[in-house]
Design a protein that fits this description.
It is built from 7 helices and 11 strands. The chain is an alpha+beta fold. Strands 1, 4, 6, 7, 8 and 10 form a 6-stranded antiparallel β-sheet that branches. A 5-stranded antiparallel β-sheet has the order 2-3-11-5-9. Strand 6 (190-199) and strand 7 form a beta hairpin. The chain starts with a helix and ends with a strand. The relative contact order is 0.15. One of its GO terms (molecular function) is ubiquitin protein ligase activity.
């Protein structure tokens, strides 16, 4: 039955190159790898590897995944030669994206929970704003601004809902990289803080990072990487905020934008 389920894929692969022999098992291994590399990765793992021992060995081997990584331009810190590492590298590279929703205030405060809303609360402003600076790169046009008492907001990311399966999280424990950008006004001082936690299914804290309370003279970026955090991570809780130091009514506190949480190879 498994062989029958996969047969349409074999037929598709045969049709991909005119003049192929009728039997796939007569093809040189290098040619078969080229054909298999044109098939979506999920079908390779769930269907193609069930066709026969030869296909299983190729799908479980490194060469096929190295080729798929090359074809799709996945570069960076490449894994060791072990096949499992290359397959994981491919899937993590394919899924890599910012898991924070509405990181730059384009949707007002949508997707953010207000933990603390002191002073006049949170406000969205266009960059650079009064006595501010432009963001270091193109594509970011707004930021969130705090007031004269502490303002904090948070977002919880469900890693499984984002496509990261339990075995991957528990065994491979891919890097979880957190970044945030913050800035102050040139006419007022302000404070900033970042607090990120990895949580279990029952919301136990497995690992956490909390920055110092930072007094801000200028714009800056903060980054932290979680690794070797142990099994059980299912959620990321991202929380940041700040206030001004002069207690002026309005929005003279820290400005934050372009927050990101990524799961990386």
């Amino acid at each position: 039955r498994r062989g029958e389920a996969a047969r349409p894929l074999a037929a598709r692969a045969q049709a991909a190159e005119p003049g192929l022999p009728a039997r796939m098992d007569t093809l040189p291994e290098a040619v078969l790898i080229q054909i298999l590399a044109s098939i979506p990765a999920v079908e390779l793992v769930l269907v193609c590897r069930l066709v026969c021992c030869q296909w299983k060995n190729l799908v479980d081997g490194a060469a096929l995944w190295i080729l798929k990584c090359q074809q799709e331009g996945f570069t960076g810190t490449e894994p060791k030669e072990e096949a499992e590492n290359w397959q994981t590298f491919y899937f993590l590279s394919k899924r890599k994206r910012n898991l924070i929703k509405n990181p730059c205030g384009e949707e007002d405060l949508e997707h953010w929970g207000e933990v603390e809303n002191g002073g006049d609360g949170w406000k969205i402003e266009d960059l650079p704003g009064d006595f501010g600076k432009e963001f270091p790169s193109d594509g970011v046009h707004k930021y969130f601004v705090t007031s004269y008492e502490w303002c904090r907001k948070s977002q919880v990311i469900d890693l499984r809902a984002e496509g990261y399966w339990e075995e991957l999280l528990d065994t491979t424990q891919p890097k979880i990289v957190v970044k945030d950008w913050y800035a102050g006004r040139s006419d007022a001082g302000c404070l900033y803080q970042l607090h990120v936690k990895l949580l279990s299914e029952h919301e136990d804290v497995l690992a956490e990072f909390q920055s110092d309370t930072i007094a801000i003279p200028q714009d800056n970026a903060l980054s932290h990487t979680f690794s070797n955090y142990g099994p059980g991570a299912r959620f990321v809780c991202f929380e940041h905020g700040g206030q001004d130091t002069l207690f002026w009514k309005g929005w003279y506190g820290v400005r934050v934008t372009n927050s990101s949480v990524t799961v990386e190879p």
